[in-house]
Structures are given as C-alpha cells and as structure tokens.
Write the structure tokens for this entry.
Amino acid sequence: MMGRIKDFLECSKYAFTETVKKLKRSYILFIFIVIRSMFEGMRGIVSFDQSFESSLFSSLINYFIEITILCFIAQSLRSIVLYNNTGKKSIENSISNFFYLVMSAVFCIYIMEFVINNLTQVLSPGLRILILFLFKIITSAFLELVYIENVYGFSIIGESFRFVKNNILTWGVYAVIFTFIEGVLIKQIGLNVLNMSNEAIFIMLLALWDTFFLLFKGNLFKFLNKHSYRQRKFMRG
C-alpha cells in the first residue's frame, strides 16, 4: 500500500510540475474553454426558460456546437501536452484532425448516458445521480484517449474503463475531484442565468478550473499510459 501511495505522490508531482510549466502556453486553450463555459451558460438559459422549446433539431445543434468546441480544445491540448507549444499554428486544423474522433466518442457516451437514464428511471434520484457520476468517472479519460491515442467509437468506453481500473488511485482520485467540482460549477452557472454578474463569475471559475485540470489530466495520462505501475516502480529503484 505504501508503494501505491508513493507512486500516487510522485506521479502527481510530475503532472503538477509539467502543468505549471506549460500554463503560459495555454492562452488559446483558455479562450476555447471560456467559449465552452459560455455555451454551458446558454444551455442553462434554455433549461430555465420554458419558452425555449426543446426539440430534436435544437438537440442536434447543441450536439454539433459541443463537438466543434471540443475539437479546438483537443487540438490545443494536443499541442501543449505532447509538443509543448501553444498550438497557434495548428489550431486551423482542429476540425479536420478531430471532428470524426470527437463526434464518434461523444455520440457513444451520449448513447450510454441515455440508456443509463432510462434503465434507472425506477431508482431514487440520489442513486441515479450516483450511477451517472460513476459513469462519468469511468469515461473520465475519453478526451485524453481522443487527442493522445486517437481512440474513437464505443471502444473509447472500454479503453477508458481499463485505464481508470489500472490506475484507480493515481487517476481515480483526480477524476472524482475534477468531475465533482466541474459539475458544481456548471450547476451554479445554470442557477445564476438571471444574474449576469454571478453567472460571469462562475463561467470564469469554470474556465480557469477546466484549463488547469485538463492540462493536469493530460500530463498525468501521458505519463501513466507510457509507464505501467511496474515500470514506474522499477524506475524509482
């Protein structure tokens, strides 16, 4: 157990150090995450104001907007995490590089969330939330698998599950923290749609949180995926 804790601390230190060093190159990433956070605010307005009718067409529009934004985020993360540059020169290739990968990954996750929602209708709200939260933990490595490993389709759910299972302490702790705080901030954006100043504050908080933690997760994933626990233990001596 002590070996696992030591591994957790050393991997955390590596990911944190790399993230801090690369933060100065994350301004393009930050811009697109702010746009994504504003999109969360717009969705909050739609869910709050019943005059905005939900339809298949509006759902498809939201789906493709989210995919497009994620393409730019994935390209920015790839440039920073893998190549240590801002991604300024490659950002124009975001759609061509990632549209299909992101679209298939997000579609499969949406389908699974839809199935889980329908299968858990008879359960209490608290238990349903817990099951969906666990599913988010299981798929918490999907974005890293897309922009680092080029995984797509339903295989991304299995690959993410295996990665989380194999790194349950080192990755799992941060996946829970990231998912929980991101969920709280998104909820606050939705609750403050009628208070523009408060909504703007939570949008910026979400953007700052996601920028730092997505970089952190990317650096941590890259290190864990490259070196198994046995290899890391051997490297420590």
Observations:
- The longest helix spans residues 196-226.
- Confidence is low (pLDDT under 50) at residues 45-53.
- The chain has ten helices and no strands.
